[in-house]
Design brief:
The protein has 384 residues and is α+β, with helices and mostly antiparallel strands. It folds into two domains: 155 residues, no CATH class; 220 residues, no CATH class. The protein is built from ten helices and 23 strands. Strands 1-3-2-7 form a four-stranded mixed sheet. The chain has a four-stranded antiparallel sheet with strand order 9-17-16-10. A three-stranded antiparallel sheet has the order 11-15-14. The longest helix is centred in the middle third of the chain and has 15 residues.
Length: 384
């Protein structure tokens, strides 16, 4: 009943005050009627030129053709009458309710929570321009709000925050100091958000491995020998991140192997980092990725979330093994170790390759490595 009274009794008059000298030379002024959300409006439209009707038989055909040519609705109406489009669409916004996008949050342990957005009510600008054209042609013109979903929904956000890869390496032979270093390094990486096409540097993220920053002394490799060094163990975290990155389909820009193959990972799947050697990768996707790193159940774990690009697998292939030899402390070859005590264990040399198997099942070689052979070293037993 109320709506009927509005339709029958109320006519709102929209007069666009066109502050331009061109209105003084208007050929004529058209008064058009358009129904907006069931309410009739009268709009006085100064017509500065009859060029529109010289190009088309009707205003409707003119607007339709210009829309098909890719022109904006506002500019087309402004062409018909100065600031018609600008003024009309400004008035329409007073009726509109903008949609609200869904939002997300994520905890430090990698749990995502989502809040649904809200639908809005908007006018179709293209249809609005056509309705104005119909009114200018003297036809009935009607314009109604349309329910519009937000651009970003929970479904959208969930698709952009899928688990891309989770990778773990064991800590079964790791010292307490080494475990401490790995946990500390994880704290600098955990819950990182890496933007689209942003580059991640392990060294820049973890920072200098120093006592002042809380790192402890543990075994590292220097000049082919295992010695105590500040920050020992962080290479295992770099290796774990490296494998998760490859399994996520992200782009590795820089990686280096160890001198000797680590025990916690297959050959050609390691990433050695030091003050002079970095591990770098790029988020080569259009959306952010989320990186989580922790130590639990005696294992180093790295998870990466983002927009899934495909399914990937890794295959390490040993091409050749080179056996080590037994030598004395002077490097002299020993054919028999009777009467000698083992000082340091030997390590076999390995030639290996790493293949990335993509979604299509194609195996692409991404690395070829040669790990050194480390001879077993003995010292002669002194007899009394």
């Amino acid at each position: 009943m109320k709506k009927a009274l509005i339709l029958l009794l109320i006519i709102f008059v929209f007069t666009f005050f066109l502050y331009s000298s061109s209105t003084a030379f208007a050929l004529n002024e058209k008064e058009i009627e358009i129904s907006i959300e069931g309410i009739k409006y009268l709009i006085k439209v100064p017509i500065e030129s009859d060029i529109v009707l010289k190009k088309s038989t009707t205003y409707y055909d003119f607007v339709k053709n210009k829309l098909q040519d890719g022109l904006s609705p506002e500019k087309i109406l402004d062409y018909i009458s100065f600031s018609l489009g600008k003024g009309f669409f400004r008035e329409l916004t007073k009726y509109e309710i903008q949609p609200v996008n869904a939002t997300q949050s994520v905890s430090k342990n990698g749990v995502f929570k989502y809040v649904e957005g809200k639908n809005g009510k908007l006018f179709d600008r293209y249809d609005a321009a056509l309705q104005i054209a119909k009114a200018l042609d003297g036809e009935k013109a009607t314009l109604d709000l349309k329910e519009v979903e937000p651009e970003i929904t929970i479904k959208t956000l969930m698709a952009r925050t899928r688990l891309l890869a989770s990778f773990e390496t064991p800590l079964k032979e790791s010292s307490s100091a080494r475990n401490h270093n790995i946990k500390l390094a994880c704290s600098f990486i955990n819950s990182m958000v890496i933007g689209p096409y942003q580059v991640f540097s392990f060294n820049n993220t973890v920072g200098a491995r120093s006592q002042e920053r809380g790192f402890k002394s543990a075994k590292i490799i220097i000049d082919g020998e295992y010695v105590d060094g500040i920050g020992g163990g962080v290479c295992q975290l770099a290796t774990t991140v490296y494998n998760a990155v490859l399994l996520s389909g992200l782009k590795v820009k820089k990686v280096s192997r160890h001198s000797y193959p680590p025990k916690y990972i297959a050959p050609s799947r390691d990433a050695m980092v030091s003050s002079s050697s970095d591990f770098i990768f790029e988020n080569n996707t259009e959306y952010p990725i989320y990186l989580f790193a922790d130590v639990a159940n005696n294992r180093v774990r790295v998870r990466i979330y983002g927009l899934k690009q495909g399914d990937y697998k890794l295959k390490s292939v040993e091409v050749k093994r080179t056996p080590y030899q037994n030598v004395d402390i002077d490097g002299k070859l020993l054919t028999n170790t009777d009467g000698y005590t083992l000082i340091s264990k030997g390590i076999e040399g390995i030639n290996s390759e790493l293949y990335l198997i993509n979604t299509n099942g194609e195996a692409i070689r991404i690395r070829s490595d040669t790990y050194k052979t480390k001879n077993a070293k003995y010292s002669q037993v002194d007899h009394p």
